[in-house]
Write a structure and sequence with these properties.
It is a single chain. This protein has 281 residues and is an alpha/beta fold. The chain has two domains: 2-107 and 229-280, Rossmann fold; 109-226, Rossmann fold. It is built from ten helices and ten strands. It has a five-stranded mixed beta sheet with strand order 4-3-1-2-10, with helices on both faces.
């Protein structure tokens, strides 16, 4: 099967950090769990928000999410089997799931529902204190309030957080500090709420001697492998679809648009600003 990663942050083609740091880290993380026949292609937008700080504010975040939607629309045209949104905030997840016929999963939804199977309550460490409010709105939308122990911000500045993929030692200590507060509030599962933070903890670059298998728990409480969980969800839903089983309901929430609606929406559905480049994992 062939899965497209829909990324939220803009990057120029051949960007050094993306090519030499981010993609190799994601590849290593996915390789821990991926099926042998799973191909993964990351699609990066050339239009959008240029750093993590913008994602802390919902009015900027929702405008940027247009690029994720258009990437997903193109994924279906390009014969991908599924789309995996690599942002924990699940930008336009429901809208994209309605818009295309191939399965769509995202980091936040996949990890929170899996965490609900693993323990009574989960806690989330997010990239900014401003993300907490949006996170709680999302949790209410998913109906998971009674399984939610709380959310704590990563104490590191947003601009420094990508550096954890090069040296995770500070990120691990910062995560452990926030995690212990969540554990005190009843968290039985810890979720790194970011597609950068999660692989940094899972792979522990620079801290391999202390964490040869990555940061798997804090004081006996498991740390979720967010990237791995989302990939396995994507593979599972594709397998169900291939076998002829239902994987989504088109009755209400995810009802497909009529031809008339698509025609009337053509101006926004064919936004010429959107351009992308791909790199295989």
């Amino acid at each position: 099967m062939k899965i497209m990663l829909a990324n939220v942050a803009v990057a120029e083609e051949g960007d050094e950090f993306v090519t030499n740091v981010l993609v190799p880290a994601w590849r290593r993380n996915f390789d821990l769990v991926r099926q042998k026949d799973t191909e993964i292609v990351a699609r990066f937008p050339k239009w959008g928000v240029t750093g993590l700080n913008g994602f802390s504010y919902s009015f900027i975040d929702v405008l940027n999410a247009q690029s994720v939607l258009h990437a997903a629309l193109k994924a279906e045209q390009d014969c991908f089997d599924a789309v995996l949104i690599t942002c924990f905030g699940d930008p336009l997840l429901y809208q994209i799931r309605q818009a295309i016929s191939i399965p769509v999963v995202s980091l936040g939804e996949s990890s929170m529902f899996l965490a609900s199977m693993m323990g009574h309550k989960f806690g989330i460490v997010t990239i900014s204190p401003y993300n907490i409010f949006e996170q709680e709105h999302t949790i209410a939308k998913y109906g998971l309030e009674h399984r939610y122990a709380g959310c704590r911000p990563n104490p590191e500045p947003a601009d420094e957080q990508p550096l954890a993929l090069l040296d995770s030692r500070r990120a691990i200590e910062a995560f452990k500090k926030a995690a212990r507060e969540l554990i005190a509030d009843g968290a039985e599962i810890l979720i790194p709420g970011c597609g950068l933070l999660s692989p940094a903890l899972r792979l522990a670059p620079g801290a391999e001697a202390e964490y040869p298998a990555g940061l798997k728990e804090v004081d006996g409480v498991p740390v979720m492998d967010v990237m791995g969980a989302a990939l396995k969800m994507a593979e599972t839903v594709v397998a169900l679809k291939r076998a002829g089983s239902a994987w989504v309901s088109r009755k209400g929430l995810f009802a497909r648009a009529t031809e008339q609606a698509l025609a009337e929406g053509r101006m926004v559905l064919q936004d010429e600003r959107m351009a992308y480049w791909d790199i295989a994992l």
